[in-house]
Amino acid sequence: MKHISILIMPEAVPASIVDPRYMFTAVNGFLADRGLEPAFDVQMVGLTKEIPLNNGAFFVRTDALLKDIKKTDLIIVPALIADMDLALGNNKKVIPWIVKQHQAGAEVASLCSGAFLLASTGLLDGRKCSTHWLFAEEFRERFPQITLTDGSIITEEQGLYSSGGANSYWNLLLHLVEKFTDRQMAIRASKFFAIEIDRKSQSPFAMFNGQKKHEDEPIRKAQEFIESNVTERISVEDLATRFAIGRRHFERRFKKATNNTPVEYIQRVKIEAAKKHLENTRKNVNEVMYNVGYTDTKAFRTVFKRITGLSPIEYRNKYNKEAVV
């Protein structure tokens, strides 16, 4: 039987505590229906016996204190809801426990923004990680030694797991169920919880806002120019000339400031605009393509699918109610 420790912290998103507990105890119930022994011993653990959530709106009673857990097999780090400086500062005392348990053989799984706490342990240094797409730039700034995998739902490396944003952690929970039981049980759980099994990407849900938290003013102006001229065909040479910077130097500065090459940034701005048209208008794909400065249908569809994980038609049918009707 696998011992699972779900960390309880005041800054935790309540659902990311309740849902893992429900998932693993439900699987125990499915096994009991087959006349089999439970696979999981699930405990909610923390630094104190009673922990307030949502600014004290309600309290969770832990099953055990961290100091009393001598050995566990899997630690679940919940999503964090508060300001990250506050959340990480308030929970420094749990970090040595996570590290000690991992060194003793425990695996660790972070859900959504819980990746910030897992990253703070140092266990992810030099490795890959996923988190909510909304916090990607902040994560990169805090943890440049970790490779953030854009768009991924699940990242797994040497007993360390992380999930993408919000409800995508259900896919990580299914992944863990399959790993610790079998495929049949994971399918049973996916049907019970109505989760699309084997979903790999959060890209269709991501909204590109552009990384402007930097001090390079000419590059910021270049970003604003790109965003204000989405219908135009803009080349890197045009941008470099406009802002009086040599092309190679411009490309290096742009990448350093935004974490995107100029070409990637132009593409992402145009595709974000295309997504809005597909979501909110009755325009067909070709009309949308021309509206965002593309004239090559194949190129537009290729870039759109690479960024969103869906074709333009699939995206429109998924998000535009009028288009489906």
How would you characterize the overall build of this protein?
The protein folds into two domains: 2-205, Rossmann fold, CATH 3.40.50.880; 217-324, Homeodomain-like (Arc Repressor Mutant, subunit A), CATH 1.10.10.60. It contains 15 helices and eleven strands. α1 (15-33) packs parallel to α6 and α6 (169-180) runs antiparallel to α7 (183-192). It is globular. With 325 residues, the chain is α/β, with parallel strands linked by helices. The chain has helices spanning 15-33, 84-90, 94-103, 115-120, 136-142, 169-180, 183-192, 217-228, 236-242, 247-258, 262-280, 285-291, 297-308, 312-319, 321-324, and strands spanning 2-7, 40-46, 50-53, 58-61, 64-65, 74-77, 107-110, 128-129, 147-148, 154-157, 160-163.
Number-wise, the strands total 11
Low-confidence parts lasting 5 or more residues at pLDDT below 50? none
- Helix count, per DSSP? 15
Can you tell me the overall shape?
A: globular
N-C termini distance? 50 Å
Average pLDDT confidence is 90
Mind summarizing the main beta sheet?
7 strands, mixed
The CATH C-level name of the largest domain is: Alpha Beta
Integer count of domains:
2
**Share of helix, binned:** 40-55%
CATH homologous superfamily of the largest domain? Class I glutamine amidotransferase (GATase) domain
Rg computed from alpha carbons, rounded to a whole number of angstroms: 23 Å
Structural class: alpha/beta
Look up the CATH topology of the largest domain: Rossmann fold
